[in-house]
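Submission sheet (multi-component)
Chains listed below:
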Amino acid sequence: MMAEETPKESFMSGLGTVLRDALLITAACGAVGLLVNLFHPEKIPYIAEEEYETLVPCPEPGGEVTPMEPADPALLAKETFVVDARAQEEHAGWSFRGAMNVPYDYLDPTPDEVIHELAKKIAKSRAQRVVVYGDGDRPDTGEQLGKEISGKGIKNVFFVKGGAPALKQPGSPGGGQ
Amino acid sequence: MSRFLQWPGHAWLSLPARLYLGWVFIYACIHKIAHPGVFALDIATYDILPLGLVNIMAITLPWIELCAGVMLIVGFRTRGAALAILGMMVMFIVAILMALAKGLDMSCGCFASQAAAEDDPISYMTILRDSGWLFLSFYVVLFDRNPIGIDRLLKKRRKSDA
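Outcome: structure written.
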């Protein structure tokens, strides 16, 4: 059996007919689908009446953050920028030396402008690492804020394991302050 | 280049391409035709179409896939069917790229439902696979000359009648 059209024919021949056929197939089969739906045991309305509940996990809006032990001497280094993620009142009560307070609240996320401003300050300070500490709960506000800061393009972001309560322990750099 | 395009072997190479594509699309539409509601949810998950078009798409698209697939296999209006498939492939690839850009962690819904394909999330491999099918459909559109199929039989009959 041989191909009937010779290869001498232009390979582009009949594209108009092909396009017409494709449109006819689409229209006719679409119409068949609409008709069949009327009798389908699982028929659905042609127009959805309410929003579909799509449960697709979206990526967390943040970057990578590394845990740091509360006794790590890097906390005291000059090149370390320390951020306190706890509420203002807690920060006023006790804070790690030179820590900047940027309260983090799960229910009321820190505005983007605040995070941007913080990222700018970190960049300006020429710090080589950023260490965030929070309430030390699970989940930890320090870790969450650290992810947001990291998500803004700041590298070398750490969070203190155990947060402020761990930092206050004797033997850690903040102990006894 | 023109010698390559006019090579008679293309007509025969496009035969397995067209049979394979036909099989893929028939296989892909079975679940969607059987469960339009589930397919509608898959479409909605892409978050591309307005709500008013989601169900229409879920109802009509599988039937277009079925018809085009059958037509490719039986060799009836083959190039038109391949062009319809080409259009669908472009649409699918764009949709998957948009979902990937949004970072959605979902299955493509190409062959089964979201729930049944949780272990097969969309990725750039999905794009690569779909691009392969896009290439095959393009090949059939350009080179199919119906070496076997209904179109050929109809042509023969018309000739013998004349």
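Remark: The mean pLDDT of chain A is 82.
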